[in-house]
Amino acid sequence: MKETIKVTITGAAGHIGYALAFRVASGEMFGPDQPVILRLLEIPQALSSLKGVGMELGDCALPLLHDIVLTDDPAIGFRDTDYALLIGARPRSKGMERKDLIVENAKIFAAQGRSINDNASGDVRVLVVGNPANTNALIASANAPDLSASQFTAMTRLDHNRAMGQLAIKTNSLVADITRVTIWGNHSMTQYPDIGSCFIGDKPAYELVTRDWVIDHMIPRIQRRGAEIIEARGLSSAASAADAVVSHIHDWALGTRDGDWVSMSVMSDGSYGIDEGVFFSMPVTCKNGEYEIVQGLEMDSLSIARLKASEKELLAERSIVEDLLPKN
Ligand code: NAD
Ligand code: LMR
User: How far, in Å, from the CA of 217 to the mean position of ligand 2?
Assistant: First the structure.
């Protein structure tokens, strides 16, 4: 039997947390032979509900779930953890822009960054889902001076999967045949879903769809999909977000498919001319628990303008939270 992996889920009694915990515990994230310990972290007001989640997890009698810790104490929630999935935050409600959440949620991620720094495994991998995810990842990472920024990521895998789903429907093809989709930038309306390098089977995607469809339909659809779901459900996406968390961590830990890449928001290293002080969604390949930004993709002037627009938004978000970013 392999050594257990410790996984912390914050906001585990919330909608995404509830959809996620069972999938991690059943082996979908790390594979069918990998036991896990779940550390579920909530705020005191949600502890009763969290207790119910713990009871249900126990009732599943999942062979890979070796222990469950339920807590409202970050020091216990993050103790020795290998993976910290930072979901707990206030979600956007109808009519609210993600930016409105910045100030409200920023303090949570500063405190959690500090606690991860002090309590988690030195090799911890962190995924920030709570919005605004890119800027929250920057805050968490900046407050964890003993860890590398490359141990922190923010989630744009849901946007990536949404783009693949829309392409599959439009071209009547299988998702499994679609490769090399990229989401660039912020997990927001300024993101740039890009299929310039995408293949469907052995054909470039642009042989199967028109540029007009991509510009007038696909890109705005993906950019607004979060709001479209909120409008339809009256609630933010949850099951699809949990699914994207599973895929993001699965691929980071176990590797991406040969010949393909995924989108992850990572600390910019200056690739594609993006400012080094922001978390920016990029195409990445993963191997042995490390990601690498795909280099050398050709970008036309319209694509570069879209990247710059998203960078500008992220720099503006960063300036709002400047006082929560300690200068190391
Ligand atoms: P929810 O309100 O259902 O659940 C959030 C949970 O977090 C609640 O149970 C709450 O008690 C808990 N929480 C709040 N502050 C906490 C803290 N400091 N520590 C621990 N737990 C805390 O919300 P949800 O639908 O699960 O969404 C969670 C977040 O994920 C939101 O910010 C939402 O906007 C974001 N989201 C991101 C993506 C993405 O693709 N990046 C997709 C969907 C949703
Ligand atoms: C989503 O993309 O579904 C979420 O981030 C919801 C939102 O606030 O846009």
Answer: 19
Q: Where in the chain is the domain with CATH 3.90.110.10?
A: 157-318
Is the CB of 240 within 6 Å of ligand 2? no
CATH 3.40.50.720 residue ranges for the chain: 5-154
> Which pTM value belongs to this model?
0.97
Give the residue whose CA is nearest to atom 18 of ligand 1.
108
187 among known catalytic residues: yes
**pLDDT digits 0-9 by tens, 54-109:** 999 999 999 999 999 999 999 999 999 999 999 999 866 777 766 677 988 999 99
Radius of gyration of the chain (CA): 19
Q: What are phi and psi of 71, to 5 degrees?
A: -155, 160
Q: Do residues 176 and 201 lie in contact, with contact meaning Cβ atoms separated by under 8 Å?
A: no
| DSSP letter for each residue of 30-65 | T-TT--EEEEEE--GGGHHHHHHHHHHHHHTT-TTE
Look up tokens 């309590």; give the residue: 119
Q: Which fold has domain 5-154?
A: Rossmann fold (3.40.50)
Give the Å distances, CA to CA, from 113 to 18, 246, 253: 23, 21, 21
Residue 90 CA to ligand 1 centre (angstroms): 5
Closest atom of ligand 2 relative to the 96 alpha carbon: 8
3-state helix, strand, coil in the chain (%, to 5): 45, 20, 35
CA atoms within 13 A on the CB side of 238: 18
What class, spelled out in words, does domain 157-318 have in CATH?
alpha beta
Model confidence over 224-246: pLDDT tens digits? 999 999 999 999 999 999 999 99
